[in-house]
Amino acid sequence: MKNFLRFLSEIVQYPSAIVGVTIITLMIAIGVYAMVSIPYDEAVRLWRGGEDVWYQNPRNAAPSWFNYFTPKKLPETILITSFEEENPVLRKELAEKTILPREAGGDEIILTYTFEYDYDEFPKDLIIYFRSRYNEKLPFVAVRWYTPDEREIRVADMSIQARQTYRIVQDQRLVRRLRGLSPEIGLFADPESETPVPLKGTYKMVIEGLTFEQASNIDAEFVLHGQLHGWAGTDHLRRDLTVALLWGIPIALAFGLVASLGTGVATMIIAAIGVWFGGWVDDLIQRITEINLVLPFLSILIMVGTFYSRSIWVILGFTILLSIFTGAIKSYRAIFMQVRESTYIEAARAYGASDGRIIFRYLIPRIIPLLIPGLVIGIPAFVFLEAALAFLGLGDPVLPTWGKIINDAQFNGALYNGFYYWIVQPAVLLMLTGLAFSSLGFALDRIFNPRLRGM
Amino acid sequence: MALNELNTAAPAVQAGDTLLSVDDLHVWFELKRWGFGHAGYVRAVDGVSFKLRYGESTAVVGESGCGKSSLMKTILGINIPTKGDIVFQGQHLSKMNRRELKWYRSQVGYVQQDPYGALAPFMNVERILEEPLIIHGVSSKTERMERIYKVMEEVKMTPADDFLHKFPHMLSGGQQQRIVIARAMILEPKLLVADEPVSMLDASVRVEILRLLRNLQEKHNLAVIYITHDLSTVRYFSERIFVMYAGKLVESSRIEPLVQQPRHPYTQALLEATSDPDANNALTFRELPPGEPPSLVNPPEGCRFHPRCSQIIKGLCEVEVPPNFEPAPEHLAACWLYK
Q: Residue B267 burial (CB < 10 Å; 0-12/13-18/19+)?
């Protein structure tokens, strides 16, 4: 405990270490939050889900923080619904619902959707998802649109089925009623203005429904697809990138940590065993290392990914296996050769310490100070490796990771189409990870290494 | 003078049972060519025999590279003899199984030259002293602590609690060497192998450490093999002395006769070379044997000292290996001069 406190007081003298520890702590906190708020199965379901999960989102919408940097305010997605069920992903508002019984049987159902529209651009899409309950006679709805300057626009009058999607933008009769303007413009445009400019203020959409049977019902969800969506934007499959960015943190950290720790510890133990037993054991380890050093690491992983399995755990296993017998084993060996000749090891042999005890209690503890900075600096290398594999299309097919976002972005021409956010966000997170672990690692190196000079 | 005090306190050699006998011991290290081809042997120890009785203290002297460290490591069971054997309390080292070898190791303590290097830098004193006990199956922590306190008392590191949680670098050279001695003594051995135990210490501390070793030897009736190149400490500590040259014992005797009248030309040269703090010596020219110690890969024919010897008998010394002659009782010299 005293040693730990002394170590802490030593480490706070390095600003780079403070920066590194702060970023790592934040990432761990966010990663834990992500894993708690979106459980693993849910994350996989969301990431693998198609239109049925993500229909409420626009495609390729930029993240909402774009508005801080643009003079024109771009619209964000607005979702108002009369459904009572919970949807964990989207924030939503409830519509006002009034039910008036009719003498002829059935009800008159009035759904009112009120929203503020204070943006300088027009939305991307307007959709109403109807859901109704009836026996034989279809319910009838009339959709009316009230602009802030109190004009009333008749949007549609129609019968609806149990599940019906009404895409306002594609209604040609409405286009004609709006004198040729596309509805997402026509419904919002200021009639006074020469060029189409959205009119700011409170809009209201009213759906007046009539049912003709007992125990019938009408519900409707109104979605206004903005040009911006959520904290992180969406991709070509309408998926919210927040899910992948958040879940990418625990995956990247776990992969990096396990790979770095596994490789570092295994390398050290194998090097120690080789040095201690010498002879053919050492020769074998050295020859394996030399062969492995000339084998192309990434190509083997690509082959494993292509022909065997793309599961992140399989790739992790192969990564560790291939990283054990590398140059590190040679440098550990050089240090162990020196430690092996120490007289304290001779003394241990003289009082009868076994080979295993000498390796684990006498050889390895001597170089642990050297191992720790190496482990920490090694983490981002493996995080990048995982991202690189995912970028090459060999990422885990199930899990959302940073590398896969970049892969999707590249595949769908994100940069040509100007969807910078799609690449910049995961790239920044990757860089932050690298920065954090490197700056901590370098500080640790400076703390631990003076003690090695005595060797 | 303190060292003289030690000398007078030394008991006379007693007739007793043999504790350790070394029979025609050869320790050869193979030289490799290109990593696999055979290129000869380094004959570090080449036919050494001697006997050591219970409680007897013996010094092995010789210059660097004469094979005394290899001899010591073989006695400790670290090197494996090429030929010959070591017999400890009637048991042959080469025939011991794993368990017996472990027991043998608990019976032989080892005090090293460099006390700082001999202590693992990442272990505290308690841990260092505990290790041999754990290895030799003392499973109860209270018993281990009892023995640690006892041995700390014996090496005069008191109060023990002040030292148990210190790391080696926090101790002085003398304290470190006391811990090394404590570690060697904690298993209550019958034989102590001390490899130049005071050569790295300050002159002031040397006397204390030598006195400590002397006290321990008397108290526990320890047999001691004291390895050194420094004859000035030998004469105050050991009863018998072996002179080693190029892997062989060239002279063995009790201390006094050897110091008074060295027989082998090499021993004579070695005694000549011993520094003596006497102002008259400042201007005297010392006659040292010419040349270098011989190669142990291709040792000279006949007597190994003959290329450097001033009293060479032509036609004999460079042809035939001298056997041990006994120019005086209990005084052996491997030199044709005493034929």
A: buried
- From the list A347, A349, A366, the residue facing B122 with the nearest CB is A366
List alpha helices for B10-138, DSSP H: 68-75, 98-107, 115-118, 125-135
Q: Which of A368-372, A440-444, B30-34, B118-122 has the highest mean pLDDT?
A: B118-122
Say if CB B39 and CB B107 are below 8 A apart.
Answer: no
Paired tokens of A138: 């279809």
The domain segmentation of chain A, as residue ranges, is: 2-37+240-452, 72-225
Of B77, B106, B118, the CB nearest to A347: B118
Enumerate the residues of chain B whose CB falls inside 8 A of the CB of residue A282: none
> Going by DSSP bridges, is the β-strand pair A152-159/A163-167 parallel, antiparallel, or unpaired?
unpaired
- ipTM, two decimals, is 0.83
Interface probe with A: pick from B105, B133, B193, most Cβ of A within 10 Å = B105
B114–A343: do the CB atoms touch at under 8 Å? yes
Q: With a cut of 50, list the residues of chain A below it in pLDDT.
A: 88, 452-455
pLDDT at B35: 72
Task: Supply the pLDDT for residue B2.
Answer: 41
CB within 8 Å: B135 and A354? yes
Give the count of beta carbons closer than 10 Å to the beta carbon of residue B127: 15
The closest CB to that of B112, out of A347, A361, A366, belongs to A347
pLDDT at position B287 is 60
**CATH number of the domain located at residue range(s) A72-225 in this protein:** 2.60.120
Contact (Cβ atoms closer than 8 angstroms) between residue A213 and residue A106: yes
**Which band of pLDDT confidence, cut at 50, 70 and 90, is reported for residue B7?**
very low
In chain A, residues with a C-beta closer than 8 Å to the C-beta of B80 are: none
Q: Which residues contact A307 (CB under 8 A, 6 or more apart)?
A: none
Q: Does domain A2-37+240-452 have CATH number 1.20.120?
A: no
Q: Which CATH superfamily does the domain covering B2-9+19-259 fall into?
A: P-loop containing nucleotide triphosphate hydrolases (3.40.50.300)
The residues, any chain, with a CB within 8 Å of residue A429's CB and separated by 6 or more, are A245, A248, A249, A252, A402
Neighbours of A9 (CB within 10 A): 9
CA B147/CA B158 separation, integer angstroms: 14
In A336-375, the residues whose Cβ lies within 8 Å of chain B are 342-344, 346-354, 357, 361-362, 365-366
B42-62 burial, b at 16+ Cβ within 10 Å, e below that, comes to bbbbbebebebbbbbbbbbbb
| B302-338 per-position pLDDT tens digit | 888 888 888 888 888 888 888 888 888 888 888 888 8
Candidates B34, B36, B183, B225, partner chain A, best to mutate (most A CBs within 10 A): B183
Of the candidates B16, B20, B115, the one whose C-alpha atom is nearest the C-alpha of residue B75 is B20
Exposure class string for B93-108: b at 16+ Cβ within 10 A, else e:
beebeeeeebbbbbeb
- Kindly report the nearest CA distance between residue A234 and chain B, in angstroms: 54
Using the Cβ of B80 and the Cβ atoms of chain A, whether some distance falls under 8 Å is answered with no
Whether residue B105 and residue A347 make contact (CB cut-off 8 A), yes or no, is: no
Does the pLDDT of residue B190 top 80, yes or no?
yes
**Is residue A402 within 8 Å of residue A255, measured between CB atoms?**
no
B37-53: strand order across its sheet: B37-53, B18-33, B83-88, B91-92
**Residue ranges covered by each domain of chain B:** 2-9+19-259
CA distance A120 to A46: 32
